[in-house]
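Worked problem 6 (solution included).
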Amino acid sequence: MRVLHIVHQYVPDHVAGTELYTQSVARRQTRRGHEVAVFTPLNRAGHFSGEPEEEEGVRVYRVPVGDRSATAIFRSTFGHDELSAALATVLQRETPDIVHLQHLMGIPAGALTHLIESAIPYVISLHDYWYGCANGQLLTNDSHMLCAGPDARFHNCGRCAVARAGWAGGAGLLGPLAAPILRRRDEALRPIFNGARRIMAPNEFVRQVHAEMGFPTDRMIINPLGLDRPPGLDEQVSAHTSTRVSGTLKLGYVGSISRQKGLHVLIEAMNRLPAESVTLDIYGDLAVFPAYAVELRALARHPGIHFNGLLARERLWAVLGNLDALVMPTLWYEASPATIREAFVAGLPVIASDLGAPGSVIRHEVDGLLFPAGDVAALGATLARLAADPARLDTLRAGIPPLRTEAEHIGQIDEVYRQALYS
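Solution. The predicted structure is:
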């Protein structure tokens, strides 16, 4: 089968969940005998030659579009001549049997109408809530509150857009003026969503959120993500648990250093704990949101808090294997964070906010612990109880379920493709 993936950005220029996922799926599909290509914008200046780069059997078409600001990326939804022309060229060259839309942020909606008009079958993977929310996260820029999606007049989306542009003080006044732009965005994206032969959601929570935003779910399939257990990890985890010092708790956070991840909540909770009993290792790029990183450093008074910077992928399992538990204090509806799967593979219970995918995937008191999102006191009490009862860690470890493998996940994608093509 000839498969073309379309994604908003790609490794190695961007290394995050959707990008790594797309790369992994594409390479595994190639090993399963498919002919696979990837189309992606490249935020650098240059000329698109129409020739792909070969990467482990996958043909990758990177289209230079210059260094686009967040506003420019948003505007590209309504039109981008270079990207539209490049995608038409790649579709003609690849003649895919099926197109897999991973993420379309910054890719012109008009370029996708060719798929619809030419009846090229395509499927969608949902990595967040971008089709209904320009932020993708259903977390507002003006009030930093959870959102249910566009209101009838898109005034809330307008306020959010104005705040994101840096005019938070005028969001209430200017929001209604920006609302028609967000309505146009919705009108451009809904037909793409509706035209997909199949839509894959990672869990029931993501499906339900889209249903509540008015998206059709009759062709939506739940396809949980998978993760393989790396060799040697069992021995490393066993060595750590056997040498664990009673009365101490080694916590970790791995992910983005951004406000919606709730790290300030975790740090404030840590500040309430005894200095000698708990440590927290924070891994994430401190340069992406530097003002927030400065705020976190100033907030951290507990001597056991360590900011370790970006975690190289090759060090991930060594770091996880040396922890007792992972904490996810997220403040937004995370769709399907890889962190949970990685923690479970490493035998780590997860302490998480009770919302989004973490709140629906983690089983409280079975394989992790849940606390009310944003509640510093509740998180602090949860951590204190865990530190005081090391046997509880062993109980939670024993409750971690077997995880789906990547091969099982890819196998279901193949089945979804067959359904899209033949039913």
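Discussion: The first strand starts at residue 2 and ends at 6.
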